[in-house]
Amino acid sequence: MGKVAISLAIGPLHKWGYQHVCQECMASQAEFADHIYVVQSTEDSTGVEEFLSKYSNVTFISNPSTWHHRPGETDEILTTSKKMTGFHMHNLIKGRLAAFRDGYKIVLSTHNNWYIPRRGIGPLHDYIDKFQATSALTGRMWRFVQLNDTLFGPGARGDFLCNLAGMDEAGIQAYYPRLKWERALGRNVPDNINDVHIVDCMFELYPEEFGAMQERFPDYHTPKGAWDWPKYLEYRVSRFKRFAKIESIPLDYWGQRIADKSQPGFASHYILRELGLSKTIGIDVVIRRAIDCNSMLYNRKRKCPEAKRAIQLRFLYELAGQAPDGTAVECGVYHGGSFVCWSGTRLGRGPLIAVDNWADKNRDAFMANLKRYPDLRGTTILEMETCEAPAAIEGQVAFCFIDAGHYETGIARDILVWPNKIMPGGILAFHDYSSKGGVVGRCVDEWQKRDKWESLGAVGTIIAFRKPR
Ligand SMILES: C[S@@+](CC[C@H](N)C(=O)[O-])C[C@H]1O[C@@H](n2cnc3c(N)ncnc32)[C@H](O)[C@@H]1O
C-alpha cells in the first residue's frame, strides 16, 4: 500500500464554527494517513495541543510565515475572505512541500471538518494505489491536483451532509453520492470509488456561526446567500432533496463521537428536520421496549383492560414530544422502562439524562437495558440524589419526568429545585400524583398554588405542567 500524507490547513480551532467536531474529524484523518502536516494560520494554538498529544504522526507547522497576522496581533485583523482563502491555499502548499521533502509522493489536502469514516479508509487507500499505478501523468503537483480534485473537489464546496444526530438505530448518514461527483467533474468516477466516504461536517455548527462569518468577511458574497441562514437553509434542503442518497450504516467510533456532540441547534439539525429525517421512534416500538425493560408504568394487573395498559407510557411519550428541543431528564429511572419509552421522541433533539441513586442496587439492570438500544448510547447517567442533579446539569432543561422518591426526603426536595431548572415553555411531569392525598399530591398542589404553570392534564397518576414562556 502506498504511503499517504495529508496537508491540513487550520485556523484557530476554537473559533468561527469549526470548534465543535474538528478534534474528531482530524483524528479520523490521522488514522487514515501515514503522516499529517498541520499548518496553522494564526498564533493562537488553542485546541491544537489536544490533537497533538494524541497522535505521533503529526508535524505541526506554525510560525510568522504561516500566520495571517503579525506576531502579537489577534486573528480579528483578517477581514477579507480573499485574504483568508489566500492564506489557506498558501498554507496547504507549505504542508504539501514539507510532505514531499519527507519523501511522500501522494499528499492530499484536507480541511479540519472533514471526517473519514473508517469504512472509507480501505477503499480510499485502494483508490489511491490504483491511481498511482495507472496514472500516466507525471509531475507531482499535477498528480496531486488530479487526485485531490477527484476525491475532494466537490467536498471542498461543502456538499456533504453529516449530521449524525437524530439517526435511526443503526445511524443514518447522508452522503453525497457519485452522482454529484460525476456532475461536478463532468466525467465518470472510477468504479472503485463507490465506497469512499468522506464527510464534510460543516453543518455541525450553529446558524449564528454562519452569521458571524458574514460579519467577519463582509466582502464574501455568494449568489446563494451563503451566510444568510434562512436562504441558505432553503438552498441546502433543495439540493439535498435533489441529490442526496440516504444510507443507513452503523456509526464508527469517530462517527459516534460526532453524533454525541451534535446539538439540537446545529445547522444540520434544521436541515434534517426540513428533509423529514429527524428521527422519532414509533410509539409501538418504544412501548415494547418499556415492557421489555420492566417499566413500572406499564399496568400488568390482570383486571386492567388491554387497551389501557400503556396509557401512562403513551401520555409520557406525547409530553416528551411536545416539549421544546434541549436537555431531557428522567429522575428515578429504575431499570429504564419509562426512560427508553419517552426518549424515542427526543433523538437528536438534545442531551438525554438518566438520574437515579439505585439505592436498591438496580444499576446493573439499567445499564444492561440501555445497552440494548444503540440510539440511546449517548445518554448521560447521573448516579446521585435527584434533588442534587440540577446543579450537575449544564443549562436549562426542556423536559423532566420525576418518578423517584415519593416521600418527604424525595419529592419534597425535588420540587424545591426542579421547577427553576426548567426552561420557559419546558415541561415538568410527575408520577404517583393523586389529588386525594399522598406526599406527591400534596407537594405538587402546594407548588402549583404558589407558582402557576399551564396544566397539561393527568393520565393515570402522571400529571404534567408547562412553564410559562
Ligand atoms: C418507581 S422507580 C422508577 C420507575 C421507572 N420510572 C419505570 O417506569 O420503570 C423509582 C426509582 O427512583 C429511585 N430513587 C428513589 N429516590 C431517589 C432519590 N432520592 N434520588 C435518586 N433516585 C431515587 C429508585 O432507586 C428507583 O430506581
Key traits:
binds S-adenosylmethionine; 2 domains; elongated; 469 residues; 15 strands; Rossmann fold; 7-stranded mixed beta sheet; alpha/beta
Could you describe the 3D structure shown?
- This protein is an alpha/beta fold and 469 residues long.
- The chain folds into two domains: 4-274, no CATH class; 283-466, Rossmann fold (3-Layer(aba) Sandwich), CATH 3.40.50.150.
- The chain is built from 17 helices and 15 strands.
- The strands form four sheets. The chain has a seven-stranded mixed sheet, sandwiched between helices. Strands 3-2-1-4 form a four-stranded parallel sheet, sandwiched between helices. It has a two-stranded antiparallel ribbon with strand order 5-7.
- The protein is elongated, with a radius of gyration of 26 Å.
- The chain starts with a strand and ends with a strand.
- 43% of the residues are buried.
Order of strands, main sheet, comes to 11-10-9-12-13-15-14
Count up the domains. 2
Give the overall shape: elongated
Biggest sheet architecture: 7 strands, mixed
The helix count comes to 17
Kindly provide the radius of gyration, computed on alpha-carbon positions and rounded to a whole number of angstroms.
26 Å
Helix content: 25-40%
What small-molecule ligands were found? S-adenosylmethionine
Strand content: 15-25%
Q: Structural class per helix/strand content?
A: alpha/beta
What is the rounded distance between the termini? 60 Å
Question: What multimeric state do the chains show?
Answer: single chain
